[in-house]
Structure formats: structure tokens, C-alpha cells
Amino acid sequence: MITKLNPERQDILPSQDVEQLEIHEAQNSLQFEFHALDCAQLQPISEMYQNWMQLFQNDFNSDLYQHPDYIIPLVPILKKSHPQHPGYLIECHKQGKLIAVGILLPKNMSTKVLKGLGPTRLLPGYYLSGNRFLMQPEFQQDETLLKSLLESAISFCHQQKAVFLLLDDLLISEPLNKLAQNSENQFLNFSHTGFQDRSLIHFPENPTDYWKQFRSKSRGKQRRLLRQNNEMTFIRVTEPDQVVDFLEAAHQISLNTWQTQRLGLRIKNDDMELEELIFLASNGFLRCYLLMKGDHPVAFKIGHQHKGVFRDVEVGFDLDYAKTSPGEALLLMTLDDLIEYDPPHTFDFGEGDAEYKQRYSSEITQSGSILLLAPTIKNKFLLFYLKSSRVADRNIRKILKATGVYTAVRQLLRYGKLGSR
């Protein structure tokens, strides 16, 4: 299915009508087409695939999650889990030339995850894969184009009866965040996470100099921590034939992590995770790590490296081994490996403001997740409910923190004991 929109008219027609619509536009206006993702139409020899890949290669800010070979294997998996909401490829043309592309993938979110109080509801929506649009180099700084892309994507989501467009874990410095915060009544926005500290390491020109920033006392603590875990085997995972065993080990660890206890099972070892890691490994981007004690997996780190940036995607350690802090030990080993082998220029710790991340970082920025919604009366009532629930949640947390209960519960959930690192 191909759907076309003219952003200047702001009329969103039902899909079955828009497919046959001919749009006559001014010479310099933009034309948007929304293609339902279909593996049969996305073969490497197809024009759509070639145009998409060319944009990915031309865009110096392209993200791995915008690569067609990452998206295509996910299409049948997403169709099975979201039969009512297929994924879409947005194409933006100017004077007949393709100048930008975006990928909308289906995602359901519960009101519980959004901090809503009361009975849980499941809200259908979409997320923008890679948190950005692919653009031709000459349009990279075009804020008007970016705004048109975002507004058209939100309008299309509403047309498809999807509640929201999610920008997941968006850096505060990103142009999309600026647009999201200054919507001028074109759409509604809500952040269930708020903007939290995000830690980065910028390695010096000589990466081994990174360790020189730490005082001798800190380096001594790090060496003692490594000695406490010297019975562990450190494994780097980069090749496709390592993925199956790594995912199984990460899943076993994930069954007994604080993240799973607090947020639900993180590593499911399902088809979607397998396809993602296989894609990363096959293209030379995968960089995961594992700690084993004998035959027993103890800690894992899922990451990937692209264009000189290592992204720490997911971590976990078995709470039965919490007393030796295997999670931090694995981080130290990972940093050593990154410095010695194909060093990146930046280590991105990802979302979350854990104290250990700040301890090892060289820069603190912020990131958060944002829901964007069409400005309907129904959505305004939904946001009123979510914002009221958030205020209540914050007040409860504030009371618990004042009594010391919040910190104690957090330590128990994460480490299985009080006063752990």
C-alpha cells in the first residue's frame, strides 16, 4: 500500500482513497508517500531498497536502526505481533527527487509503563526507528523539512488509529527534541521518563590515557574489583556464529537481574532479538561481552559500535553473584577491550543515571522518551490523566525518599541487599 499526503493542505484521507489520489503541487512543495513495509517489495534489486540504502549511506548521521537490512527481517515478526498496524516507510520527495526517509514501526505501550494509575490499558502506536529521519546531506540543517516530516508522521499515525508516535531515549540536544518541545499546537507531547542524566566517555587521542584521569586510590579499587572476579572468563562476542549461545546465556542471566525484577524480563531470547544481533554481527557492528564462571553465565553486556561510537544497549548480572560486583567488573574489562581493540572515540552508556556511569564518564548530557500525539479532545483527556498520575507518583516517591524507604527498596531490587555498590 502507498499513501500520499500533501502537508500544506493538512487533509488526511482514508488509506483506500489516498492510494488513488493524484496530488498536484507547487514546484517547490513537498510530497510524502507512506509505503507499508513488505519484504516482497524490498528485495535488494528493488528501486525502493536501492533508494533507501543510498540515503542511509549518504547521511553521515545515519543510525544502525535505519539500515534496510536491519528493518526487513523484522517485518514478518512485527506483522505477527501487530497484525493491525504494519510498519511503514515514509518517503519525502521534492521536485520529484527523494530527499528524506523515515521508518515507523508498531509498538504497544501500557498505561502502567507510562506511569498511569488505576486499571492498565494497552495503547497502540508507532516509534520512529533510529529516532531520526534519513536526509540527503544538503537538507541536514533544514528545520522546515524536519518539522514537515515530523508533523506528517504524527498525522499519519493518527490516521492509522495509532495513539502516539514515540521518540525513544532521545538526546536533549537533538533537533527533534527542540521541535517536540515547541510544537505550536500542531501536536501534543508527553514524556513519561522525563529527561535524565546520560553519561558519555570521550576517549582521548591516545585511548590508553583514559585511565590517567583516575586517582591512584580509584585505580586500586578497580584492580581489587578485578581480582575479586579473577575466576571469571571474559568473552567478546562479535561474530554471527556466537549469537545463539550468547543470547541463551544473556537470557539465563536476565532471569535473575534487578532489571527483570523491577521492569520485567529484559532478554527474552526471541526471534526479534536474534534477528537484530545477527544483523549487527553480519555487518561488523556487534560488540557484546559475557562473564562466565565455569559453565555458568554471570554477567552480560549488549552493545554495538558504528561510526566510532560504542553504544551500551543492555546490561545485567546474576544477583546471586552481587557481592563481587560482576557488573562493574565486566564494565572495566569492556573498557580495557575497547581501548586495546578497535577503539571508538565515544562510549555511550545509554539511558539511566546510575552512579557508576557518572563515575566513569567524561561528559553528562540528558536524554528522555517522548510521546507525540495528534491534538484531539480524546488525546488531551489521555494526557491529563497521565500527567495527573505522574504528579501523584512523584509525590509518593518524594515521601518515600524523605523517609529513606525509597533508597532501601531500590538497593534491594537491584542488588538483593542493602548498602551494595
Any key phrases for this structure?
Aminopeptidase; 15-stranded mixed sheet; alpha+beta; 25% strand; 15 strands; 421 residues
Please tell me what the overall shape is: globular
Order of helices and strands: EHEHHHEEEEHEHEEHEHHHEEEHEHEHH
- CATH-derived architecture of the largest domain: 3-Layer(aba) Sandwich
- Tally the helices: 14
CATH classification class of the largest domain: Alpha Beta
Superfamily at the CATH H level of the largest domain? Gcn5-related N-acetyltransferase (GNAT)
Largest sheet: 15 strands, mixed
Overall radius of gyration: 23 Å
Strand content: 15-25%
Number of strands: 15
Residue share in helix: 25-40%
Give the mean pLDDT. Answer: 89
Distance between the termini: 53 Å
Do you know the CATH topology of the largest domain? Aminopeptidase
Assembly classification:
single chain
3D architecture notes:
By secondary structure, the protein is an alpha+beta fold. It has 2 domains: 2-195 and 368-395, Aminopeptidase (3-Layer(aba) Sandwich), CATH 3.40.630; 204-344, Aminopeptidase (3-Layer(aba) Sandwich). 37% of the residues lie in helices and 25% in strands. The chain has 14 helices and 15 strands. The protein has helices at 15-18, 47-58, 68-71, 74-81, 143-159, 175-181, 216-228, 243-254, 258-263, 271-282, 326-340, 355-360, 377-403, 405-415; strands at 2-5, 30-36, 88-94, 97-110, 122-128, 134-135, 164-171, 188-190, 196-202, 233-237, 288-293, 296-306, 309-317, 346-348, 363-373. It has a 15-stranded mixed sheet that branches. A hairpin with a 2-residue loop joins strand 11 and strand 12. The longest helix has 27 residues, at 377-403. The termini are far apart. The model is unreliable at 6-27 (pLDDT under 50).
